[in-house]
Amino acid sequence: MAISLRGVSKHYGALHAVDGVDLAIPRGEIFGIIGHNGAGKSTLFKMMLGLVPATQGEILVGGASVTGRHFRAARRHLGYLPENVVLYDNLDGLETLQFFAKLKHAPMAQCATILDRVGLTHAGKRPVREYSKGMRQRLGFAQALLGTPQVLFLDEPTNGLDPQAIRDFYATLRDLQSEGVTVIITSHILAELQQRVDRLAILAAGRVQAVGSVEALRQQTRMPLTFEIEMIASDVPAALQALAPLATLAPESTPTGLRLQCPREQKMAVLGALATLGDRVRDIKLLEPSLEDVFFGFSA
Q: SS3 of 66, please?
């Protein structure tokens, strides 16, 4: 396992910021952690990085306990991008990476290569004070990649990035994953994570409410599927008649036909009923619950 947490808690007096968390994250996985503000995500990150001691429980990162004597060496193989990147405005982009490379004992030769990997070669000699928010974010990501980390911790990593930069960022993560790197990522933009993480944990009030792939979490919430059926208005009565035997459904008329929600186990029955209508059904859209729907289902 790249990361293992067993019974991990962090208490600040009566406040239980993290409360009895168990997690096991294998090597090479892109793992998301989502939750409301104050759910404990940042505290959990800081404990996994060894920056904040746990009140109780055990945390292993890269096989080393964060409280053990071997963690200092293991930490050289970690990369961290905090939510709020703080950089030195008077340094240029390349000098910034060289500064962090010295701190991490990373090869200086990596700096130019990583600057190119995040698309900042053209700005490498410009002072950071002239960087846009998105450029600062990419430079922050670049410093996290120094030292060829085996585990990456990324806290709200796409803040300030435009759509193309976000696409490039996740393409880089997939490349890193193919090299065996484990990625732990938090984001408030759930639509971004939905198709891009292998599994995720939903955190609320310091506790893990659920862990699994998006599809597995959909199954656990038992949220209904949504059908959008396109047909002309004169064919709607026939559709309602065909669906009538499925008594749990409550179809609604729309300007383009019908919309209905059904339990997941009735999906094939609905499709079978619609098939009897032949070409009177012009199109069917089947909508799964989004990650946002699933999140609110667990955290409400």
A: coil
Question: Rounded to whole angstroms, how far apart are CA atoms 254 and 233?
Answer: 9
Inter-CA distances, 266 with 147, 180, 189, 212, 274, Å: 52, 40, 31, 24, 12
- pLDDT recorded at residue 221: 85
Q: Based on the structure, what is the number of domains in the chain?
A: 2
Do residues 230 and 273 share a domain? Answer: yes
Domain housing 240: 222-289
**DSSP 8-state class, residue 234:** G
Model pLDDT, residue 300: 61
Tokens 């955190």 sit on residue: 203
Strands annotated E in the chain:
3-12, 15-25, 30-35, 56-61, 64-65, 78-81, 151-155, 182-186, 199-204, 207-212, 225-230, 252-254, 257-262, 283-287
Q: CB within 8 A of 1, min separation 6: which ones? A: 24, 25, 26, 27, 60, 63
Quick check: 78 and 151 in contact, CB under 8 A? yes
- CB 176 within 8 Å of CB 276: no
User: Do 104 and 146 contact (CB within 8 A), yes or no?
Assistant: yes
Q: Which residue positions in the chain have pLDDT lower than 50?
A: none
As beta bridge partners, residue 226 has: 261, 287
How far apart are alpha carbons 185 and 29 in whole angstroms? 11
